[in-house]
Each structure stands twice: as C-alpha cells, then as structure tokens.
Amino acid sequence: MTKTATTQSTTNKIRNFSIIAHIDHGKTTLTDAFLQLTQTVTPQQFRERMLDSNPIEQERGVTIKLAPVRMQYQGYTLNLIDTPGHVDFGYEVSRSLAACEGAVLLIDATQGIQAQTLANWHKAQALGLTIIPVLNKIDLASAEIEQTLLETMETFNVSEDEIILASAKTQENVDKILQAVINQVPPPKTTPKAALQALIITSVFDAHKGAIAYVRVMQGALKNQSLYLLATQTKFSPKEIGVFAPNMKPVKELRAGEVGYLATGLKDIKFLKIGDTITSNQARNQVTALPGFKNPQPMVFMELYPIDNHDFAALKDAMAKLKLNDAALKYRATHSPALGNGLRVGFLGIFHAEVIRERLEREFNLELIATAPAVTYQVITKQNSKLVINHPNEMPDPSEIAEIQEPIAKTMIFSPSEYLDKVIKFCRQKRGRLLNTTNLGNRIKLDYQLPLAELITDFHDQLKSLSSGFASLEYELSGYKPVDAVKVDILINKELIPALSFMAVRAEAETKGRTLVKRLKKVVPRQLFEIPLQAAIGGKIIARETLRAYRKDVTAKLYGGDRTRRMKLLQKQSKGKKKMKQVGKVELN
Ligand code: GDP
Ligand code: MG
After folding, report:
1. Strands 14-21 and 76-81, how do they pair?
2. Which of 20, 42, 271, 410 has its CA 20 to 30 A from that of 153?
3. Which amino acid residue places its CA nearest to atom 9 of ligand 1?
C-alpha cells in the first residue's frame, strides 16, 4: 500500500506535454525560455535554439528530429516533447503527441492561425489532450492581439480568459504557461503494476550505444530486463536507460508515465520504428500494441548522381550514414548511361528530400545532380493486377494499362481573403478540387483535394509568392485517384535517356516536354556536330530542339538549384574534374 502510494504521488507530479504551432510561430524559442526559467540549463550552458542540434535545423530554423527534455519546476517533473514542424514529418508529430496528456497551442500574434496550427490542433484534439492556447510575440508592435484573440476563441471554442498572452523572446508570461501546464494538464494515468507497454516516440543512432529509442512508458516499468519490440518482432536487452536533463542521464528505471530513452545496442534503427510498442520479452504475448502504428512510406522519389563518377562510393557511404538516423529514408543503387552510377531515393516528402540532398552536399561535400522529384503511381493492368510504380521507367507499355492512379492529398490552405481569387485560380491550374471554404475573421480556410504530384514541385513557393507570403498550407495523403497521365521520354542524339523520363498529365505533357528540352539545350555542352534534343510520348516525337555544333560549354544543373551551387559546379568542372563523360553517345569533353 505504502509503495503504491509513493509511486502514485510521484506520478501525480509528472506533466507530459508538447508545444504545437505553425512553423516560425516560436516553438523553439519558447522551449529555450522554458529551459532557462526552470534552470534546466545554466546561463553558461545556454545557447539559442538548444534543441535544434543539426546545422540545417539551426540555419533553416526548423526542427527535423523531435527531442524530449525533462525539466524540474515547483516540485513537478515536466517532460516537454518538441515536435518537428514540417508536414513531411506529420506522423512523428502525432506519435509525440500520443506520448503527452497536454499541448501548448502556440499562435503568432502577428500572423494569426495558420494551416499547421489547425492541423496540429486536430491531431491533439483527436488524442484527447488538454490544450492550452497561447498568443506569442506580443512584444512586437505588429502584433494584432485583439484580432488573434477573436480568431482563437472562434476557431477553438475557448473563452478569452483561457488564452495566455506571452512573449517567448522577452519571456513575458512564460511562467504563466508553465503554471497552466501544471494546473490544467492531467498527470499521466498509469497502471505501474501492469506489464510493460512503452511507446517509441523516435529513434536515433549512437556509435557506442547503438540504436536508441526515445520512449514514453504507458504502463508497467522499463528496467533492465529482456525486452521485445512488437512491430519488428525483435528481442534485445537494454544497454542503458535514462532521461533527458537535457543531456542523456542514466537512471535505473523509467516508470509508467515517464519519458526518457532506451539504448538498445541494436545495430540498426530499422528495428526501432516510430509508434512501435516495447514490452518485456516475458509478456510479449499478453501485451497489445499501442494504437496508431504505421510503417513510414516513401512518397517522393528522386535520383541522385554524383557529378564526379568517382564520388559514387562516397555517396553510398554518406547515404548509409544518414540512414542510420533516418528509418524513413529508402534507397537503392541505379545506373544511367548518361549520368553514371547513382542512387534512387525514396523520401517522405519534398522537404525531407531537400534536407537530405543539402546534407549530402554540405556535410559530405558531394556535388550532385538530382532528377526531378516524382510520386508513386499505381497502375491497374488490363489483366486487372495492381502495380506500384516508383519510377516512370517501371511503367508498363501503354497497351497493357487499364488505368493509372496518382496519390491525392487532402490539403488545407489558409489565405487572407484579398488573395482568394488568385489562390483559387492557382489551385485550379494545379488540378485542385475545392471541397469547402470557411471564413475566419479576414482570412479564409480552403479545403482541397490536390494531386501530390502538383504539391511536390514548387507549389508552396508559388502559393507564398502569389499571396505575398501570407498563405499557408498543410496536407495529408488521402488515397489514389485515376489520372490520364503519360510517360514522356527524352532523347539526346536519338538515344533514350531513361533517367530523364517523367510522368505528366496528358494535357500538359507536350508543354512540359518542350520546356525540358529547351532547358537541356542550355545545359548539354555542344559537340563538334549537331545534336537533336527530343521529347517523345510512346515513340512519337512531341518536341525538338537542335544543339548547334561546337563550343565548349559547361554543365549546369538540370533542375533548379541556386546560383551559388551552380557556381560551385562550374568551378569544380573548371578544375578539370570529370563530369558526365557521355550523354548517350555524345562525348562531353
Ligand atoms: P519555430 O519554427 O516555431 O520553432 O519558431 P522559432 O522559435 O524558431 O521562432 C521563429 C522566429 O520568431 C525566430 O526568429 C524567433 O527569434 C522569433 N520569435 C519567437 N518568439 C518570439 C517572440 O515572442 N517575440 C519576438 N519578437 N520574436 C519571437
Ligand atoms: Mg523549431
């Protein structure tokens, strides 16, 4: 009795919570303020944006890997679980919320409610969390406090006195937020005597300790005993159990309701799937899996080729290193006669793809050519079987195809009403189907069905620019729909270059083919003789450009890329490094 009572009272002093917000609304800054206020870090240890450890996270100001941290405040243990802000990692957000009883809903008072604010609120609401609304950045002169208050009250059905006005930057009222967490968020409900059930929030790889799971113990206790992973059916013994304070600090056990880490000694994080359940090996047949487990599915595919063919081994090594900490990253080797050896990589979304590509270039010093991003298609054949197509070259012959289906995203767009016409026109061009509109003060929420293929190009940038930066969007996949699409092939000097093939809606195929051929004309170096550059659909030429004879030229990137990167490529080439030796039968040097 006494023993249960002490366990109970410590559990009563635990609060597990997250901060949810639209990107840039101040989540990381507020986390910093919490760390200082609770003296979890000393002023000497403190550096801004403590939890964004990766240089790209620091620089882009986004959180990629979520990181939990334990704080002591007024006799309470507060476990704050930071979440990745980007839509590609939406599944990780919902798994970290599943580890909490409450969430601070942070709204930038200069921006108001945005797409991710609402999307994350829905996630938290669905999991039954206590939600504490906070208006942030009230120190700014441009803060529209009254307007944002009204919006917040209307959207989330809360009264004015439930909303905290704060500034993460000046730390005004940050103590009130923590006080609300203590008073309003319920302590974890636990059954400490039950068999172990722990949720994997995320996982990282450590050279010494192996794969490490960040966990929330839902029931029972996590201690040094033989353990078992339900989804990956893996048995192992813990190497170390600990908490984040904020650095890893070993403890004897993690009890029900607690958040911490578990070093598994396993050699690969593929065993530690986000959302999986850890139990004791002994209880593995009695314990049921926690709800919501999903295997991450790559949605966007891209091929990466080193500019210098000798860098292929280095590219493979670098990718293997990145994969150590990113179970969602999938790739395999591929070869193109024009571009040499490369990797075909599957990503969760376009942002995930950009981050990986940037890390390969910056951290591993690789110069890469990336093919255009593509989505996964489904093909129903005339024999009525279903094929999953991850690359245009896997498309069967058109005569065998009964139907092609493309991934569709349920998309929510927030826009000030003055840009409404432009947004609707733009989405129509992008084959969007408008399902619903809702007024929110002087802004409008639009619910769309949009093809993922349209979203993964520069959709977000275009939406931002046509709305002067004010519109925001959030999407989640909602299934596949039939599409009238065709494969467009590119031929250089009459030779098919498979790496350049792409899928397009039939009505746009010709324009897209022509655009790519025009772009190729600028990047393929001239030869001693004339070279035709052609786009074709099923053998029929739809566009042609002619590269006139000779003038030694340099190679730019085929798809986008910024100027500095292009300059680097030029420098590298001028240093005499070998670029693509051949495009088809065309010599490049
Ligand atoms: P996150 O993307 O939600 O993690 O947002 P960050 O914490 O990275 O903040 C985005 C930007 O807003 C940064 O430049 C912060 O310095 C700034 N910021 C965050 N909170 C405040 C605040 O309360 N007042 C002011 N003036 N700026 C803030
Ligand atoms: Mg952040």
Report:
1. parallel
2. 410
3. 26
